[in-house]
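Human: If only I could read backbone structure tokens as easily as an amino acid sequence. Take your time, and here it is.
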Amino acid sequence: QLQLVESGGGLVQPGGSLRLSCAASGSLLDYYSTAWFRQAPGKGREGVSCINPNGGPTNYADSVKGRFTISRDNAKNTVYLQMNSLKPEDTAVYYCAAAVAAGCSDYTMYNYWGQGTQVTVSS
């Protein structure tokens, strides 16, 4: 059974950077598409970015394009989300999710979830 644990969240000033990590155990991430979601207070969960099992074409929400970068290190069984130029509207709980699929962009298919990590962007 795949288990996912996020880390790297915290409080950062606008314009700052954070790198989130999603460490997997119980199975190899090589077989999984992996995505980052976020949920801001009072809002629904939205897909932020995803990456295919082989690290191929990635996908980004329009709100984060050019600022966020998703990557994966299958040797470490870990997926990352580098977040730069952070804005107050990026404040949310960020979740890592995975699904056995060759393509990552169907954000409704994810069935393995981490517990989330809080990101707060504020001065």
About this structure: The chain is about 0% helix and 50% strand. The longest strand covers residues 18-25. The two ends are 40 Å apart (CA to CA).
